[in-house]
Amino acid sequence: MSDIAKLQIGENSYEFPLVKGTENEVAINIKTLRGATNGVITIDPGYKNTGSCESAITFLDGEKGILRYRGYTIEELAEKADFLEVAYALIFGDLPTKEQLEKFHADIKSKSVVDDDIKKIIDAFPKTAHPMGVLSSLTSALTAFNPSSVNVRLRRRHV
Fold first, then answer.
1. What is the pTM of this model?
2. Domains contained in the chain, CATH given
3. pLDDT tens digit string along 128-141?
4. What share of the chain is helix, strand, coil (3-state, %, to 5)?
């Protein structure tokens, strides 16, 4: 197979590189299309034929119902991995070994004590408050209870 795709528009011919994906899918890199053709663009309703970026992290083929994260199918992660295993994979790029998971769990547990004042903040929200508003507020408030977790240089006079 050639490493280029040829596009004929009227009397003019243009060449664009082919890119091979992580699962040997082939794409035409048209990032220079508009400039090379003096304004020609593509139309792809529903983006069924458009890849927005190159990724070594995710693979998606909607027509075949395939969605993978770092080579793991989403079904495999949902059915066989627990929350902390998936969190570990998101941070470190792969599912943990048993030993890695035990250490990760211990590390998380050592930082998971919630100050009683956080509970007071929760109680101060109206019972009808939207959960996302409460969650985002609490996430911001947590830095006040553990300032060492925020990498901010303090001025000497404030210390």
1. 0.58
2. 1-45 (2.20.28), 69-110 (no CATH), 116-148 (no CATH)
3. 999 999 999 988 88
4. 40, 20, 40
